């Protein structure tokens, strides 16, 4: 693949700041080749999160966060391959919402919140969207995302971190899949006041997650309902779909449907 001199310089001089990585998109992205995933990593992470949710006394949030980040780092390179083995529909469904809201306008500014290695953002880039930023707390995932060259900016920010390094009131669309509501240390409704400061007036937020996560005790939607009463956001209709991901052995009786939550930022 030909790399321009400007791109080579950008790669060689990249700086990992405390909260932000800047990467420019110089050419149309190409598919990334991943190694065969090690299922043990996947089982370890998902079982760890399941135990954290089931035990009577919840894992202290910071402890849970650091343990899960270690596990995420172990299989970051294999993450997309793992889900590619299932009929995973989230990327297409999120893209279709963008089409519905913006009538095919590919010049909109997008933030992929919890972008991981860039799987969802890639589906937009392949369809011609060029104004995409990403945020992700895990440095190993960020390194993978950077190699796609589809992100204009990458921010190393978790849901409990200061978001002021991310452009404020800049994005037409905030998208997220596979990171909300999983556990108490993952993003939840409490982060919505912060998210609305990143999205422009009349912009949209769309979040995809497993429907069963919405029934966990730590998931409370009082925050967004209050924001709707205050005229700050509009809660739009949700959509459910099958095969969010393959169920694990301990989930064999669980409903693994996915759900897409949609919101419009009013102010």
TrEMBL record:
Domain Methyltransferase: 110-203
Source organism superkingdom: Eukaryota
InterPro entries: Methyltransf_25, SAM-dependent_MTases_sf
Pfam families assigned: Methyltransf_25 (PF13649)
Protein name, as recorded: Methyltransferase domain-containing protein
Species assigned in the record: Clytia hemisphaerica
């Amino acid at each position: 693949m030909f790399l321009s001199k400007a791109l080579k310089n950008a790669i060689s001089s990249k700086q990992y700041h405390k909260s932000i990585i800047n990467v420019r998109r110089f050419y149309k992205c190409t598919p990334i080749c991943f190694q065969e995933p090690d299922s043990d990593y996947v089982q370890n992470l998902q079982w760890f999160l399941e135990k954290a949710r089931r035990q009577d006394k919840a894992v202290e949030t910071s402890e849970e966060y650091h343990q899960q980040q270690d596990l995420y780092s172990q299989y970051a390179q294999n993450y997309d391959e793992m889900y590619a083995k299932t009929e995973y529909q989230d990327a297409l469904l999120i893209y279709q919402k963008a089409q519905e809201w913006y009538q095919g306008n590919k010049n909109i500014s997008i933030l992929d919140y919890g972008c991981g290695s860039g799987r969802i953002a890639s589906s937009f880039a392949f369809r011609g969207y060029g104004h995409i930023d990403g945020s992700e707390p895990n440095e190993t995932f960020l390194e993978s995302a950077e190699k796609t060259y589809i992100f204009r900016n990458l921010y190393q920010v978790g849901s409990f971190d200061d978001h002021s390094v991310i452009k404020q009131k800049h994005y037409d669309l905030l998208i997220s899949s596979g990171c909300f509501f999983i556990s108490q240390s993952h993003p939840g409704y409490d982060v919505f006041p912060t998210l609305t400061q990143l999205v422009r007036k009349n912009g949209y937020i769309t979040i995809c997650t497993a429907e069963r996560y919405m029934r966990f005790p730590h998931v409370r939607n009082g925050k967004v309902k209050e924001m709707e009463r205050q005229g700050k956001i509009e809660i739009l209709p949700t959509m459910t779909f099958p095969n969010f991901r393959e169920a694990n052995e301990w989930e064999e009786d669980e409903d693994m449907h996915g759900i897409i939550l949609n919101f419009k930022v009013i102010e």
